[in-house]
């Protein structure tokens, strides 16, 4: 004779052990037990994929964008200079990581270097324009 459950349906002979029935009259049913995960470190014989280290290339691009924006204003020239230097340094390190295969954002690192150079040049241009304008005005009346 075949096994039947309380509801009258046949039990699948190929299924695993069934969770215990939920207690009646106590609100929500109890969740079935969770299956444990495999061993830590993944499956044996398979290496975990290495995430690219794109942080410095992205930081170079952000520093370059903000530095170039600060360089467009005459008042924030100091921030443009500092952020330009940081963008060039971070971009150089980011490009070296790309050539070593540790990162994959060559474009962002290169953009950071270019914008960092721009952020360094803009305050120099502002200073040259200011000196030229002051020289053309002549001495101030006293």
Structural description of this entry:
With about 140 residues, the chain is mostly helical. About 50% of the residues lie in helices and about 0% in strands. The protein is built from three helices and no strands. The chain has helices spanning about 55-70, 75-100, 105-135. The chain is elongated and about 110 Å long. The N and C termini lie far apart (about 120 Å).
> How many strand units?
0
Shape: elongated
State which percent range the strand residues make up.
Answer: under 5%
Helix count equals: 3
Estimate the mean pLDDT confidence: 82
- Helix and strand sequence: HHH
> Sheet bearing the most strands, described?
none
Question: How widely separated are the two ends?
Answer: 118 Å
Uncertain regions: pLDDT < 50 for 5+ in a row? none
Query: How would you classify the helix and strand content by structural class?
Result: mainly alpha
Helix content: 40-55%
Radius of gyration: 33 Å
């Amino acid at each position: 004779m075949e096994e039947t459950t309380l509801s009258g349906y046949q039990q699948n002979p190929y299924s695993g052990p069934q969770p215990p029935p939920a207690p009646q009259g106590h609100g929500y049913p109890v969740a079935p037990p969770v299956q444990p995960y495999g061993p830590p470190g993944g499956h044996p014989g398979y290496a975990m994929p290495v995430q690219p280290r794109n942080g410095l290339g992205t930081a170079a691009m952000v520093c370059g964008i903000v530095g170039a924006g600060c360089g467009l204003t005459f008042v924030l020239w100091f921030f443009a200079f500092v952020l330009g230097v940081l963008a060039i340094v971070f971009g150089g390190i980011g490009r070296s990581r790309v050539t070593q295969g540790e990162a994959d954002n060559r474009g962002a690192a290169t953009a950071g270097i270019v914008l960092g150079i721009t952020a360094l040049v803009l305050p120099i241009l502002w200073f040259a324009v200011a000196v030229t304008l002051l020289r053309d005005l002549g001495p101030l009346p006293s």
